[in-house]
Design goal:
This protein has about 150 residues and is mostly helical. The protein has helices spanning about 10-30, 35-40, 40-45, 45-60, 75-95, 105-130. It is built from six helices and no strands.
Length: about 150
């Protein structure tokens, strides 16, 4: 039996929430002007695993998500693509309404890097918890990857 996705009790979600709080209240105040990574990219790296579990929980409760499996590649990257357009195109284009944000292509790289790592972690934990090997159940393997036997 595969364990269900825990949404707001997911270990990765809880870990990135801790990373956000430590970065925001402990690291950023002492690194202002010294280490731009903490001010510019940490939140972008954790964007997917921070926001997606809550959104997926709402989708599930509204009946827009039909399962409790961990998010897959398409589900994660669909949201990250939308957020990338909103945060890096729409926001800067209408900056006077959003506090004049700056478009940064490296933010998009961080969104997708964080999203890719998240999918791997979510699906690896699922396999380990259910005693499976690899990144998913055999029934979920795309036909192109299945052996002909």
């Amino acid at each position: 039996m595969k364990p269900p996705f825990k949404y707001l009790r997911d270990p990765l979600f809880l870990a990135v929430m801790a990373v956000y709080l430590v970065n925001r209240f402990c690291v950023e105040p002492v690194t202002i002007g010294k280490v731009p990574f903490f001010h510019c990219y940490v939140n972008d790296l954790i964007c997917g695993p921070f926001w997606l579990p809550g959104l997926l929980y709402v989708y599930r409760k509204l009946g827009l998500r039909a399962h409790d499996r961990p998010p897959g590649w398409a589900e994660v990257f669909f949201h990250l693509a939308i957020w990338s357009v909103l945060f890096e195109v729409v926001g800067p284009a209408y900056g006077r309404y959003f506090g004049y944000p700056t478009a940064d292509p490296w933010d998009v790289v961080c969104y997708f890097l964080g999203g890719a790592v998240s999918v791997l972690i979510w699906n690896r934990w699922r396999c380990v918890a259910s005693g499976q090997r690899g990144l998913g159940h055999a029934s979920e393997t795309p036909a192109v990857l299945k052996s002909p036997n």
